[in-house]
Design brief:
alpha+beta; 5-stranded mixed sheet; 14 strands; binds adenosine-5'-diphosphate; binds magnesium ion
């Protein structure tokens, strides 16, 4: 019998206490406040964001906490005192990182401080009067699990800077969309990670008790109710703890295949392909850099996955979450067989969770590792987690980590 390892979420008291204690210890003074932002998990709509498609993330109860103190004026008032100093409990052996804000830019910051200082840089680049600050970070969002610890860090810093430098963006959705854009720019240009905008949009804009339907073609959003308890259900998230070394090259290859197919079909993005006309579109694809057969499967995933997002939204909006299992299963099969981005560990989570009674399960995130989700009866959460842990144990794989996802509040002030 294998005991599953749970990753509990901190409550706000614990997160604020930890970040504040770290801040006092490293900076010898009190922070102006504590802000926090959640990680996220995508319910469905994978590898659709660079195809103008739809995705449907929820915020996790797991958050990154940032205790922060404004130390200088805005850059306009006095650039000389605009120094950024950072520390993180997750980077214990790192020295206190310190850098004039004027020296932060593309290619100038190595490692984790890029995600935090990068947000100050991109807000300043967007014309906002951001100056020096000290920040201490602590988090219960796991690193590199596909649950977006990077966006949680960026978005917590963004709402903190918004408030201490009175940028006036955090108060409404339009302002939060601008904060999200600044975080995306920091991740792309300062941290050098070519990600889409799902993570930051969710962390800043999704509501508690709701998933965020994000349309990456026109950047519109819709809040879709996602509360499972009244239906006797829960969403189990399994971090496979498997490394995804292949991910970068494979991600680029999938993007290129989609762009080539769109060019062959004479459309801007694969979003333009009507599911009803999918077979006709597939028949028109010819051999190119990749064999036509491979390109057809890539296109079929993207077009059917976008349709599955709409299908799941329909079920959620009509209170039929219990019927969602097959939609999750179909998404996994499509990612595994047509898009070929799953892994042995992800397939094992999905298969063992289903065998133990999950209504449906799928990998989530870019693939090749990271996490999977399973929709389970509330009273079977422990049994399903135990079965997945046991399956990993039998194959002598690194023990996975488990958490239960409740659609949680977006980034904001905690203390
Ligand atoms: P994911 O977003 O899926 O967790 P990423 O590779 O995008 O994985 O981001 C992980 C990186 O983000 C870490 O390696 C680190 O550089 C940075 N990061 C995330 N959370 C923290 C934190 N609490 N403290 C310091 N750096 C962090
Ligand atoms: Mg990330």
């Amino acid at each position: 019998n294998v005991t599953p390892q749970w990753l509990p979420a901190w409550d706000d008291d614990e997160g604020a206490r930890r970040a504040t204690t770290l801040f006092r210890g490293r900076f010898g003074t009190e922070p102006d406040g504590v802000w926090s932002a959640p990680g996220r998990v995508n319910l469905i709509g994978e590898h659709t964001d660079y195809n103008g498609g739809l995705c449907l993330p929820i915020n996790l109860p797991h958050r990154t906490y940032v205790a922060l103190r404004r130390t200088g004026d805005g850059t306009g008032a006095g650039p000389s005192d605009a120094v950024v100093r950072l520390t993180s409990a997750q980077e214990a052996d790192a020295e206190l990182w310190s850098r004039p804000l004027a020296d932060v830019g593309p290619g100038t910051v190595d490692g984790w401080p890029a995600y935090a200082a990068g947000v100050a840089w991109s807000l300043a680049a967007d014309g906002h009067d951001v100056g020096g600050f000290d920040a201490a970070v602590d988090s219960c969002v796991p690193y590199g699990a596909g649950l977006s610890s990077s966006a949680a860090l960026e978005c917590a810093v963004a709402v903190a800077l918004d408030e201490v430098f009175t940028l006036g963006l955090g108060g409404d959705d339009a302002g939060r969309a601008r904060l999200a854009a600044a975080c995306i720019r920091a991740e792309n240009e300062i941290a050098g990670a070519p990600t889409g905008g799902m993570d930051q949009s969710s962390s800043l804009r999704a509501r508690a008790g709701h998933a965020l339907l994000l349309d990456t073609r026109d950047h519109t959003t819709r809040h879709v109710p996602f509360v499972l308890a009244p239906h006797g259900l829960a969403l189990l998230v399994v971090d496979t703890r498997a490394s995804h070394q292949l991910a970068d090259g494979q991600y680029a290859a999938r993007r290129t295949a989609c762009e080539d197919a769109a060019a062959q079909l004479g459309v801007a993005t694969l979003r333009e392909i009507d599911p009803a006309g999918l077979d006709d579109a597939l028949a028109r694809l010819a051999d190119g850099a990749l064999p036509a057969d491979v390109v057809r499967r890539r296109v079929r995933h993207v077009v059917t996955e976008i349709a599955r997002v709409t299908e799941l939204v329909g079920l959620l909006e009509s209170g039929r979450i219990r019927d969602a299992g097959p939609v999750l299963d179909a998404s996994h099969a499509s990612l595994r067989d047509d898009y070929e981005v799953s892994s042995g560990e992800l397939d094992l989570v999905v298969d063992s969770a289903r065998a133990a009674g999950a209504l449906g399960a799928r990998m989530t995130g870019g693939g090749f590792g990271g996490s999977a989700i399973a929709l389970v009866e509330v009273d079977q959460v422990d049994a399903v987690a135990g079965a997945v842990a046991e399956a990993f144990g039998l194959q002598r794989l690194t023990a996975p980590a488990f958490l239960v996802a409740l659609a949680s509040a977006p980034a904001g002030r905690t203390r």
